[in-house]
Amino acid sequence: MKLSFEELQREFKRVLVARHVKSDVADECATMFAQTTESGVYSHGVNRFPRFIQQLDQGDIHPDAMAKKILSLGAIEQWDAQRSIGNLTAKKMMDRAISLASDHGIGLIALRNANHWMRGGSYGWQAAEKGYIGICWTNSIAVMPPWGAKECRIGTNPLIVAIPGSPITMVDMSMSMFSYGMLEVNRLAGRELPVEGGFDDNGQLTREPGVIEKNRRILPMGYWKGSGLSIVLDMIATLLSDGASVAEVTEDNSDEYGISQIFIAIEVDRLIDGASRDAKLQRIIDYVTSAERNNPEEAVRLPGHEFTRLLAENRRNGITVDDSVWAKILAL
Ligand SMILES: NC(=O)C1=CN([C@@H]2O[C@H](COP(=O)(O)OP(=O)(O)OC[C@H]3O[C@@H](n4cnc5c(N)ncnc54)[C@H](OP(=O)(O)O)[C@@H]3O)[C@@H](O)[C@H]2O)C=CC1
Ligand SMILES: O=C(O)C(=O)C(=O)[C@H](O)[C@@H](O)CO
User: Fold this and answer.
1) Residue 9 domain-assigned (yes or no)
2) Which ligand is nearest to the CA of 118?
3) Considering the domain boundaries, does residue 5 fall inside one?
4) What's the Cα-to-Cα distance from 213 to each of 185, 220, 289, 314, rounded to whole Å?
5) Which GO molecular function annotation, any one, does this entry have (predicted)?
6) Which end of the chain is more exposed for a tag (fewer CB within 10 A), N or C?
7) Among the residues of 121-206, which ranges form H helices?
8) For residue 186, is it within any domain?
């Protein structure tokens, strides 16, 4: 089915207000879920809303809580999210990193006790829209086996790197070959994965999303490389925030809450003039996209460059929402 931004936002807000979330908080949170969906990231917008409500109902998320600053070390600050709403707090933390970067050239916020932030790319994009390089990542509960193992011991810990420019270039990627959200998108559409995404119960590589969602033998992106990167991202977030690691979240908590996140903003405009910046970026873009194509029908593209088109299409034609997902939300 097709829905408008307003229909999505109104329904998300209704569900939140019905759970006694304050009207202004519900409004902002609903707007972020609707914006993520409208941008084409269905996995962590509309599709993930029922899971967010489940965590709110369980008491994992504290809707009245506000993040509080713990300490300040020049361009670095440590904050405690106090289990507040993940997407709202992440937005505030990137704003704070940008403000530090405008004073120091770079700003880094390490956040503990946080909740799932949904689309990590929202916060990288937020920095890039203001002219800053945005880098952020989060840890998670253990949902992926480390390279060589069968049992989940590491997080999908997505890493986001966003570069200001026209258009913004941004990688927003899970440390697994596919995020669980993208496995769900493919399963709901009845599609096989374009490449192997994990192992089946017999230890054979598989493209069946449903099998991997069930057995959780998801592949790290780049095999051992994604496994290693997931581990060091977890270590940095844990140390700088003095917060919980994937091991602690998994062994000590009843679900995925109390996680650790990093938000970095870096100044660009005082290091290079605008015309040189644009020319250098354009040269990179042209060089990459003019590579001889493997498949003549498929253009070579840069990450993040599709969002402006997707957003315009969704605004023009309405936003595609899976019927079963919407039915679940209407019943909340
Ligand atoms: N715990 C958490 O918070 C988690 C959150 N997530 C969120 O899930 C969402 C989806 O993540 P994930 O499934 O890893 O994303 P994808 O695998 O869909 O994409 C990963 C990256 O690869 C880029 N890309 C994909 N195809 C191409 C291509 N043909 N050419 C160039 N670049 C390409 C994407 O750019 P483009 O966007 O332009 O397609 C994106 O930057 C993210 O928002 C992520 O933050 C994921 C895991 C855990
Ligand atoms: O992978 C995802 O998608 C995601 O968003 C996650 O947070 C974790 O992998 C996990 O919570 C999925 O159950």
Assistant:
1) no
2) 1
3) no
4) 11, 14, 34, 28
5) 3-dehydro-L-gulonate 2-dehydrogenase activity
6) N
7) 121-129, 180-188
8) no
| CB contact at 8 A, 115 and 66 | no
**181 touches ligand 2 (CB under 6 Å):** yes
Domain that holds residue 114: 63-176+220-271
Q: What is the CATH number of the domain that holds 167?
A: 3.30.1370.60
180 CA → ligand 2 middle, Å: 5
Q: Is 155 labelled a binding residue?
A: no
Is the CB of residue 37 below 6 angstroms from any atom belonging to ligand 1? Answer: no
Residue-wise pLDDT for 127-174, tens only, equals 999 999 999 999 999 999 999 999 999 999 999 999 999 999 999 999
Q: How many domains does the chain have?
A: 1
Using the mean position of ligand 1's atoms as its centre, give its distance from the Cα of residue 258 in Å. 23
Q: How would residue 262 be classed by pLDDT, with cut points 50, 70 and 90?
A: very high
Identify the pLDDT of residue 194. 97
Which residues neighbour 281 within 8 Å (Cβ) at sequence distance 6 or greater? 163, 165, 169
Q: Is residue 148 part of a domain?
A: yes
Arithmetic mean of pLDDT, 67-74: 98
256 pocket-lining for ligand 2 (C-beta < 6 Å): yes
Question: Residues with Cβ < 8 Å from 94, sequence gap 6 or more?
Answer: 109, 123, 124, 126, 127, 134, 136, 263, 265
Closest-lying ligand 1 atom to the alpha carbon of residue 118? 3
The tokens 């879920």 sit on which residue? 33
118 annotated as ligand-binding: no
| Ligand 2 atom 13: residue of nearest CA | 180
- Catalytic residue set: 44
- Strand blocks (E) in 81-178: 106-114, 133-138, 159-163, 169-173
C-alpha of 41 from chain center? 9
CB of 41 sitting under 6 A from ligand 1: yes
Other Cβ atoms less than 10 A from the Cβ of 215: the count is: 16
CA 228–ligand 1 middle distance (angstroms): 18
ipTM over 0.90: yes
β 76-80/106-114 pair status: parallel
